[in-house]
Amino acid sequence: xxxxxxxxxxxxxxxxxxxxxxxxxxxxxxxxxxxxxIYIEIANTSILVDTPPxxxxxxxxxxxxKIDAVLFxxxxxxxxxxxxxxxxxxxxxxxxxxxxxxxxTIQEVERVFSYIFNPIQIGGGVPEVILYTVxxxxxxxxxxxxxxxxxxxKLNILGYRIGKLAYLTDCSYIPESSFALxxxxxxxxxxxxxYRTHSTHMNxxxxxxxVDKLGVTKAYFTHLSHDLEHNKVxxxxxxxxxxxxxxxxxxxNN
Length: 254
Ligand SMILES: [Zn+2]
Ligand SMILES: [Zn+2]
Ligand SMILES: [Zn+2]
Known about the structure:
Blueprint: E1 2-7, H1 22-25, E2 37-42, E3 45-49, H2 55-61, E4 69-71, H3 77-80, H4 86-93, E5 97-101, H5 103-112, H6 114-117, E6 129-133, E7 138-140, E8 143-152, E9 155-162, E10 165-168, H7 176-181, E11 187-191, H8 204-214, E12 218-222, H9 230-236, E13 241-243, E14 249-251
Parallel strand pairs: 3-4, 4-5, 5-6, 10-11, 11-12, 12-13
Antiparallel strand pairs: 1-2, 1-14, 2-3, 7-8, 8-9, 9-10
The protein binds zinc ion (3 copies).
InterPro entries: Metallo-B-lactamas (IPR001279), RibonucZ/Hydroxyglut_hydro (IPR036866)
Pfam family, one: Lactamase_B_2
Organism: Orenia metallireducens
């Protein structure tokens, strides 16, 4: 399985508009963060998680030409607003793209993009997609996708487990029943917004506690704010835990 980080930033992105902090003025490309998304290639199946506002740039910069499915974590703008850019992939593949999410998310996709699902005129390109509500394991070709219910503040949203990878963005709390679904993973990608606490995201300390509890051999933090300067924070983290960065590619055995 090959995982490409397309974006690792929090909802504002990094640099933040108008900010002159050390991270935002840094010339290190690892301090430049699009909104969060990953692209997973496994057994001839290509999976995109979320469609952030910079999706077109993320697809171009990572030379992505194939998406067999989209997994949505939740419908906040920073995870959804690149949805229209799936048209570029439709044009290459000439078929609809199946999109999966929990009930709230699929209802929000239909509401926000009502012009796609309830066309008011003929003409004008819209993404060709098929929406599926999921609340339990499902198959994508030969791969089992396991939705992981997590809390994002008061919202019930989804992380996903695929083989030995778990991707838990926008996570403030993991119920015990979901820890059971994560048993045996090797690579954890989890929300770690900043050092200070936040009502809807884990901070570094809380994310490290999850890493310890799961006993994973490797973890990457994502959905990072400008409070986290890449090299400084990485030097403070344990060896098996690192900040992800845009363009990072990680390969693991399924
Ligand atoms: Zn977010
Ligand atoms: Zn800043
Ligand atoms: Zn969110």
